[in-house]
Amino acid sequence: MGIALIWSIALILIKWITSKRRGAISYDSSDQTALYIRMLGDVRVRSRAGFETERRGSHPYIDFRILHSHSEIEISLSARNIRRLLSFQRYLRSSRFFRGVNAQNSLYILDDGYNGQAKCMLEKVGNWNFDIFLFDRLTNGNSLVSLTFHLLSHNGLIDHFQLDMVKLRRFLVMVQEDYHSQNPYHNAVHAADVTQAMYCYLKEPKLAKSFTPWDVLLGLIAAATHDLDHPGVNQSFLIKTNHYLATLYKNTSVLENHHWRSAVGLLRESGLFAHMSAEDRQRMESQLGFIILATDISRQNEYLSQFRTHLDRGELCLENSAHRHFILQMALKCADICNPCRTWELSKQWSEKVTEEFFYQGDVERKCNLDLSPLCDRLTSNIANIQIGFITYLVEPLFVEWARFSNTRLSQTMLGHVGLNKASWKGMLQERSSSEEADPAFDDTD
Ligand SMILES: [Zn+2]
């Protein structure tokens, strides 16, 4: 009896110790709740804290690769089948159980040469010609974790806010993994690129001299999470397929609301700000929403005219926190669509990726007999046309105003690249049309 009792006590102790140890790394009681909420797959289940957050991994994962699959197994393409099959894939990928087994965070398996080169690149992280694609390769696909961790650490934010390094790393790994690596464009590398651009803007003299550590932390976290769990299709696709997220957010800033709520969910799950006062945590969460929601491109004109009015009246005063946060919104908007402001080599790669994502959506729409979204039809649109329109109607007007606000070498460099890149796309378009004229059969063979 005595031995049995000692053995039971020992077992209880071992269980307690292992659960505690796991708690320190990746589990605690509230995480377990979150885990089961995810497993139940019910988006209606909310956080107990009273503030609505999105359940992570809740989005039915749409894997467009099946459209290009030449597998002998015929896959039925009814929307319902896609959803049922791929929700489970998404669940597998996002489940912490499986994440634990399949840790993709393999920074440490890189040899020293790669790590050394990645570290070297980080010394120039504030340069506008920073090559995020190369950095992503050097970090074995961990660009978002490595870059954001470095920026927070290098700028003294970890010390200033007394952030727990383990929780921070855990938060960033979850953020990175909740981006869909299968998306050609809206993936963690885009988030890393936007975070790097945001950092460049935060370093601009006007911002650097008046922004507080809180603003910098807010800006960098907003940039890193601004497209979290992006499904690789746009809002209109979600609305016309009656997706539950469209219903949940009443067809308004559907994706941006989802990115924000997902980010808040991860902040809470990681406990990154658990040591802050409830008031500060709530302030951080709502300000994060304020900034991320500004990336809704359908509200571009609204923000732009507000920006113009402020500049015309010369009334922006960065001592005022409301004005600083408005500038954070504008900075994130610029960072989000800054691809044409990069060098041609980088800009061209981004253009190819975004076009690929648009055309995949168009392919799904065609196969499912849905109306084809503008710019998504590979039969009528092309990369050069899409880029020229994007630059003319969205990028140039925004960056012209940004240069009025922050007239620096960086803003002039960005406008310079925009002009050159637009000219290159125009040149390619002309070449294309002259070769079509020269060869009447071009259309049939294209
Ligand atoms: Zn984005």
From TrEMBL:
This is Phosphodiesterase. It comes from the Eukaryota. It catalyses: 3',5'-cyclic AMP + H2O = AMP + H(+). Zn(2+) 2 binds at D227. The active site is at H186 (proton donor). Pathway: Purine metabolism; 3',5'-cyclic AMP degradation; AMP from 3',5'-cyclic AMP: step 1/1. The keyword Oxidoreductase does not apply. Its EC number is 3.1.4.-. Pfam families: PDEase_I. Residues 1-19 form the signal peptide. AMP binds at H186, N187, A188, V189, H190, D227, D336, Q387. One of its GO terms (biological process) is signal transduction. Its cofactor is a divalent metal cation. Binds 2 divalent metal cations per subunit. Site 1 may preferentially bind zinc ions, while site 2 has a preference for magnesium and/or manganese ions. Keywords: cAMP, Hydrolase, Metal-binding, Signal. It comes from Pelobates cultripes. GO terms for molecular function: 3',5'-cyclic-AMP phosphodiesterase activity; metal ion binding. Belongs to the cyclic nucleotide phosphodiesterase family. PDE7 subfamily.
